[in-house]
C-alpha cells in the first residue's frame, strides 16, 4: 500500500495542470511507487504512459532510495474539447504503458510494455501484471484534489497471487489456493476511496482491517520524497550531445539559452561564457580546469 500527501503536492504545485491531468499524474506516481515497492532493485523504476489522446505523455519514476518525481504533457485545446469519462480512453487514448528498471551500465535494463486497455491506470497495470508477468493481480488507485485544509493526496493498493513454488509459500491444494485468492480479492474490493486516503486511519490499521484473517504480516514502511535528479552538470552533458549551431538558435531576447527541467520546472541559463565552457573539448577542459 502507498499513500502520498506532501510528496505528490510538492510535485503537482510546481506545474499548472488542469485537475484531470493532475489527478492522472497523481495516480501514476502512486502506481509507480507501489510497483517499485514490489521489486528488489538499486536504481530507477520508471512508469510511462504514452497515447494519442489530449494527454500524450505521463512519466513517474522512483529511485531505490525513495526519490519521487513526475510530469505530464498535454494539449490544452484538445483537453478543453474532451468530455468526461474514464481517464485512459478519454485522456490518454490509444497507446502503451511501459515499466522500466534501470540499475546502471553494469546491469541490463529491464522494460515491459503493454497496450493501454481498460478504463483506468489500475486496469492497465492489472492487465500487464496478469498477462506479461503471469501474476494474478488486483490494483486500486485513488486521488483527491486540495481541499478542507489538505493538499493533493493519492493512494494505491495492490495484491498479487505469488507462485506456489516460491520459497516459504504455504502448501495448498489448487482449490484452496483459488479460494484464498478469491477471498483476498473480495476483501480488497471492500475498501473505499475514503479509507485509502484517511489520514486518521494508518495504513497498517487499514491492512489489518482488511486482511487480518488471512495471516497478514506487515513490514515497516518506506518513506518517499519529492526530489528531482536534474543538475547543472546533467544539463551540460545534454547540451554537449547537441551541435553548438543548433543551441545558438535557442537564445532568448537576453542572449541566453534556457533549459527547463520538465519534472521540477527548474531553469538553467547559459550565456556566452557558460556555453563556451560547456563546449570546451574534454582534453582542453582537463588541461585548463
TrEMBL record:
PANTHER family: 33 KDA CHAPERONIN (PTHR30111:SF1). Keywords: Chaperone, Cytoplasm, Disulfide bond, Redox-active center, Zinc. It comes from Magnetospirillum sulfuroxidans. Transmembrane segments: none annotated. Gene3D superfamilies: Hsp33 domain (3.55.30.10), HSP33 redox switch-like (3.90.1280.10). This is Hsp33 family molecular chaperone HslO. It comes from the Bacteria. The lineage of its organism: Bacteria, Pseudomonadati, Pseudomonadota, Alphaproteobacteria, Rhodospirillales. InterPro entries: Heat_shock_Hsp33 (IPR000397), Heat_shock_Hsp33_C (IPR016154), Heat_shock_Hsp33_N (IPR016153). Pfam families: HSP33 (PF01430). The keyword Ribosomal protein does not apply. CDD domains: Hsp33.
Amino acid at each position: 500500500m502507498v499513500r502520498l500527501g506532501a510528496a505528490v503536492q510538492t510535485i503537482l504545485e510546481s506545474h499548472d495542470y488542469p485537475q484531470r491531468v493532475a489527478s492522472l499524474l497523481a495516480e501514476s506516481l502512486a502506481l509507480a511507487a507501489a510497483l517499485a515497492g514490489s521489486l528488489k532493485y538499486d536504481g530507477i523504476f520508471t512508469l510511462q504512459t504514452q497515447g494519442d489522446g489530449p494527454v500524450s505523455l505521463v512519466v513517474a519514476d522512483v529511485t531505490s532510495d525513495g526519490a519521487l518525481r513526475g510530469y505530464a504533457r498535454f494539449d490544452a485545446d484538445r483537453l478543453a474539447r474532451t468530455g468526461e469519462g474514464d481517464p485512459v480512453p478519454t485522456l490518454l487514448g490509444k497507446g502503451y504503458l511501459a515499466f522500466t528498471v534501470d540499475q546502471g551500465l553494469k546491469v541490463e535494463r529491464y522494460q515491459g510494455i503493454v497496450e493501454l486497455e481498460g478504463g483506468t491506470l489500475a486496469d492497465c497495470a492489472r492487465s500487464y501484471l496478469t498477462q506479461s508477468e503471469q501474476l494474478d493481480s488486483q490494483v486500486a488507485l485513488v486521488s483527491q484534489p486540495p481541499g478542507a485544509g489538505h493538499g493533493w493526496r493519492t493512494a494505491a493498493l495492490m495484491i498479487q497471487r505469488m507462485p506456489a513454488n516460491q520459497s516459504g509459500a504455504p502448501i495448498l491444494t489448487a482449490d484452496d489456493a483459488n479460494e484464498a485468492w478469491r477471498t483476498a480479492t473480495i476483501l480488497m474490493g471492500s475498501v473505499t476511496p475514503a479509507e485509502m486516503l484517511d489520514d486518521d486511519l494508518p495504513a497498517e490499521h487499514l491492512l489489518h482491517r482488511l486482511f487480518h484473517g488471512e495471516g497478514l504480516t506487515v513490514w515497516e514502511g518506506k518513506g518517499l520524497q519529492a526530489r528531482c535528479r536534474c543538475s547543472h552538470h546533467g544539463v551540460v552533458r545534454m547540451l554537449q550531445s547537441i551541435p553548438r549551431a543548433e543551441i545558438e538558435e535557442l537564445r532568448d531576447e537576453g542572449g541566453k539559452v534556457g533549459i527547463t527541467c520538465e519534472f521540477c520546472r527548474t531553469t538553467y541559463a547559459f550565456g556566452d561564457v557558460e556555453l563556451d565552457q560547456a563546449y570546451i573539448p574534454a582534453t582542453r577542459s582537463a588541461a585548463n580546469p
